[in-house]
Amino acid sequence: MKEPVPDDQSGFAQGGLIENILILAATAVIAAAVLQAAPLQSANDRSRWATVWSLVERRTFQIDEIDAVGAWSTIDKVRYRSSESEPWHFYSSKPPLLSTMVAGLYAIERAILGYGLVHHTALVTRLLLLVVNVIPFYLSLRSLRACLQLLGSGLYTRMFVLAVAGFGSILNPYLTTLNNHTPAVACAMFAITAAAGILVSRSRTHSSDNHEKPSEPRSRDFVSLGFFASLTCCFELPAAQMGALAFLLAVFICSRKTAIWFVPAAALPLLAFFVTNWMATGGVKPFYATYGTETYVYEHNGIPSYWKNPRDLDANTESTPVYLFHCILGHHGLLSLTPVLLVAVCGTLLALLLVLRRKAESQILLILAGALMTLVTLGFYLTRTENYNYGGNSVGLRWMMWLSPFWWIAMVPALESIQRRRVHIACGLLLAGSIVSVNWSVNRPWRPSWLYEQMEAAGWIHYRTPVKPFDSARFSVLGELPSVPKTSMSWRSSRGTRLQLQMVSSNADTLQLQVQLTPTGEATKTFVFAASRIQFLKGQRWLSLPEGKPEEQASSSQLAEIERLLQGLPAIRAFNAAGPTWIPSRKDSIKAWKVERAAIRVVIDDPALGKVWHRCDVQYCDQLPFGVLQWRTSVTAEATNELLDTETWTADQH
Question: Which of 48, 218, 549, 608 has the most CB atoms within 10 Å of its CB?
Fold first, then answer.
C-alpha cells in the first residue's frame, strides 16, 4: 500500500488547514441545527428521554409517571413486572445503556444549572445533544481524517470523503435527536482508525529491511479497537459481527496484546451494557429482543398497546424483493437518498479486483470487512418479515447507519483512481445531490424523506392504514337515538354550560326528546322536541316543534340553536371517519373508552368576518347512551387562519 510521507513532501500541512475548515464547518452546521431542533420529536427519542428523566428525578427505569404526560407519551415502551405479585410498570423498549449515560450528564446539568427536562425541555435537550451528538461528531471527523492519512490517501480524497461524512451522510439528520445510531457511528469510526493503525504498523513491519527497526503495533490501538468496537456493539446489536471481526484481527496481529489490552478494554462496555440491562429488566436479555411477546402486545387498563394493532408503515406487508428495492433504490434507499454512496460501491468493486490480483492492502481489508457486514446486516433485516417497517417512520435505514464509516473508507480506491475531469464532476454532482437530500431532513429525522413524500403523492406507494368507514353515515354529534324511554345523558362544555338529553318516549320512528341547558350561574332551560329516527339516519332535519300548549313549546330560534348544537355545524353534513382510539376514563383508573373519531368542516360566508371555516371533531362511543363521549367545535378565519372561537363538550360519565 502507499505509505504516508512527511508533511513537507506530501502537502499534508497545506491540506490540513482546508481539512480543519471542512471539519469545523460541518460541526458548526450540525450545532446550529441542534440548537434549533424541536424537542421530543418522536416516540423513539421520547422513549429514551423518558428513561433519562425517570433515572434522575425518580431513581428508577420505570417510565409510568412521565409517560402519562401527553407530550412525553411513547409507543416505544413495554409492560413488565418481575412477578405476579408485583404491579405492572412501563419501561422503555430501548437498551438502557445510552439512556443511563445521558442521565448522568443530565444529573450534572441539573446540579450545576438547575434546569429540568419537564419545565425547560428544549433548553436541556439541546444542551445534552451538543455533548452526546455534536462533540462525538466532531471527533469522528477528526478520526476519519487521521484514518485517511494512515492509509496514505491524497488531499483530494481526504477532502472529498470528509465532505461526504460532514455534509452528505444520512447520519446528519439524526444528530438533532437522541438516538443510539449517532454514537454508534462515532464509536465505529474510532475503532476503524485504531484498526488502520494496527494494520499499517504490521505492514511496515513486514516491509522493513534488516537495517530498520520494525514498527510494532501500539498498545493503545489495541485498547481503542477493543473498547470502541465493543461499545459499537452495545449501541447497535447487529454490530456484534464487528466486535467478532475486531477480535479476530487483534488475535491475528498479536495475541499477547489482545489478551493484555484488547480484551479488558472490550469487557468494560459489555459489562456496562449487561449491568444496566439487569438493573432495568432483571436479566441480561434486553426488552428490545422480546418484540412480539406479551411485553409488547398487551392491554393495560382497557387500552391495547400500539403493537397489538400496528398501523401504516408498521403494518407493511410488502414482499421481500419490493422491500429490498426500497432499502437500496426506493424511498428509504441507501443509494437513492445519498447517491454519493455509488462512489463507495465502485471503490468496493475495485477493492475486490485488487484482492483477485493478490494485493491485500490495509484499506482493502477494511473495505471488504465493511462490505461483508453490510450484506450480513441487510440480510438479517430482510429475514424479519414480521417487522418490514424500514426502521419506522424515519428518513432512512437507521439500523444500517453504524456502517457509514466503512462506506466512507470504501470510497478511497475509486477516488484515488480518478484521472478524468468528467469523473471528478460526476462525483461532485453525486455529493451535491446527497447534501441537498440530507439537508432537506436535517431537522426532521423522524419523518419520511423527500423521496417518500414524492412517491406517495404520485400514488406509487400506499402505507397508510385505510380508515374503516362508518356502517351508516353520521350527520350529528350524536351517535344514536336511544330506543329505551327515560334514557338520559349529560355533557359539560369548556365554558361551563351543562347539556342534558333525555328520551321521554320512543317508538319505531317518532320520539320525544327533552333537552336541558344550564349555563354557568343561570337557570336551567328545558325544551321538548319531536324527533324522527328515520330523518336522523338519513341526514335530514330530524328535530321539530311538538304539538302542545304554546307556553310549553320552544321557539323557532331555540329549535335552531339546539339543532346547530347537536349537528356541530351550521349545516348538515356527513362526518368523515378518522379511525378508533382509546380514551382513559376519568372516573375509573382501570377503564378506557373505545371511541371512533370523526371530523367535518364547512366554509361559511359571514357578513362581518368574510369566509370562515366551521369544524367539528367528534369522539363517538357506542358504550354510552346517545353514542358520543366528546365533541369540539371551532371557527377559523380563512384569510388569516386565526382561531375565532372554540368549544368542547365532554360527557359527565367520562
Answer: 48
**Entry field: residues in the chain:** 654
- Rounded to whole angstroms, the Cα distance separating 309 from 354 reads 51
- H or E segment at 370? helix 362-382
| CA–CA distance, 208 with 189 (Å, rounded to integer) | 28
Cell numbers found for residue 365: 481489508
What cell numbers appear for 179 in the block?
Answer: 438516538
Q: How many CB atoms lie within 10 A of CB 75?
A: 17
Residues 6 or more apart whose CB falls under 8 angstroms from that of 487 comprise 502, 503, 625, 626
Collapsed DSSP state (helix, strand, coil) of residue 566: helix
User: What pTM was estimated for this model as a whole?
Assistant: 0.85
Q: How far apart are CA 209 and CA 561, in angstroms?
A: 100
Residue 104: how many other CB atoms lie within 10 Å: 13
Domain ranges for the chain, please list them.
7-457, 488-651
Instruction: Using CA atoms of 91, 92, 95, 97 in order, give the dihedral in degrees to the nearest 10.
Output: -90
> Considering only CA atoms, which of 434, 433, 432, 463 is closest in space to residue 448?
463
Per-residue cell: 254: 498479536
DSSP bridge partners of 614: 602, 635
